[in-house]
């Protein structure tokens, strides 16, 4: 059984963390880009524990939101 958590759900940045109970040392962070009703996979990163995966996911989320704010401000 897998547990997937959505950390960001905006059009340009859809970030999920997936953890499989059958493999407790596997945490997967995926970043997607939404195109209409489709999602395009941009990157997949694997981690050994939850803290590493959450820290990385929050980092890319913050980086993306910062770029989004600068993009709309200009």
| Spatial separation of the terminal alpha carbons | 45 Å
Overall shape: globular
- Class from helix and strand fractions: alpha+beta
Count up the helices.
Answer: 1
* Number of strand segments: 4
Classify the helix fraction into a percent range: 25-40%
Radius of gyration: 13 Å
Largest sheet: 4 strands, antiparallel
Strand order in space, largest sheet: 1-2-3-4
Strand content: over 45%
Low-confidence stretches: 68-74
The H/E string reads: EEEEH
**What integer is the average pLDDT?**
78
Task: Walk me through the structure.
- With 74 residues, the chain is of the alpha+beta class.
- A 4-stranded antiparallel beta sheet has the order 1-2-3-4, with helices on one face.
- Residues 68-74 have low confidence and may be disordered.
- The chain has one helix at residues 50-73; strands at residues 2-10, 13-20, 27-35, 38-47.
- The chain has 1 helix and 4 strands.
- The longest helix has 24 residues, at 50-73.
- Strand 1 (2-10) and strand 2 (13-20) form a beta hairpin.
Short description:
With 74 residues, this protein is an alpha+beta fold. It has one helix and four strands.
């Amino acid at each position: 059984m897998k547990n997937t958590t959505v950390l960001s759900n905006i059009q340009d940045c859809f970030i999920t963390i997936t953890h499989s109970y059958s493999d407790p040392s596997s945490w997967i962070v995926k970043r997607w880009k939404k195109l209409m009703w489709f999602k395009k996979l941009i990157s997949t990163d694997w981690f050994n524990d939850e803290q590493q995966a959450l820290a990385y996911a929050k980092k890319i989320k913050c980086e993306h939101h910062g770029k989004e704010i600068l993009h709309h401000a200009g």
